[in-house]
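Self-study notes.
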Amino acid sequence: MNMTPDQLDSVYITLCETADSAGEADESEFLTRLVLLLALDVGDPEVIRRRINEARMPVAARRTG
């Protein structure tokens, strides 16, 4: 299922607000747990690895690539 731009924006806002509320000390743990929980939904290790590598790219590279 693909999300609309508005849905993706809403998810992004929720993610940012939740990460901020976790506090600097717990933000990394929250994001790691979230990725692992979402990985269970995706279910394909290769897709997960590809997305992890995509997330490592600088934002400017993702916009042009």
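Second protein, same conventions, sequence then structure:
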Amino acid sequence: MQKEIQDIREQIAMAMEQTMSVHGLPQSVCRIYGLLYVADAPMSFDEIQTAVGMSRASVHNALKALVDTGSAQKYWDKDRHRNYYTAEKDFFHNFPVFVVGTLRAERQAYLRMAEKVKPVLETMACEDPSPDHQNAMKLLSDMRNALQFYDWLNRFTDFIETGEIFKHLEKTSQEQT
């Protein structure tokens, strides 16, 4: 039975690694999160390093990333004189952290580009005899639509980040067993 439980823990850890990797995190971060997620007890730095077989620097950087995003907690055990780490298992906490960051980065990338090219397109669109007039008009129209979307995305991101989403979409459902 012990072997079967260990196999199941490994499968869960691998699934947690995969879910974290979807958010573009480095493999070392994902692997350590998976380990902490299935751990029976908080783990020390040395225990984590031994379990994952990574360099001290890699483990340090991964743990820092996990703690900084709230995906892991770090606490000092004064009796043992060392830090211990646990995984954040509340997905309703983790989800907004990763999704909001990704959505804001997407929006910012588009807005930076639009800030640069929109004035050029507007100038081209005003020049009637210009051969690029029609193309500029079409690109401006597309850009206006995209900017509307990114305005909506910003409001949606705020909706997630503030937790307002959970007032409209409950954390539990009738389908749960």
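Instructor comment on the second fold: The first strand starts at residue 43 and ends at 44.
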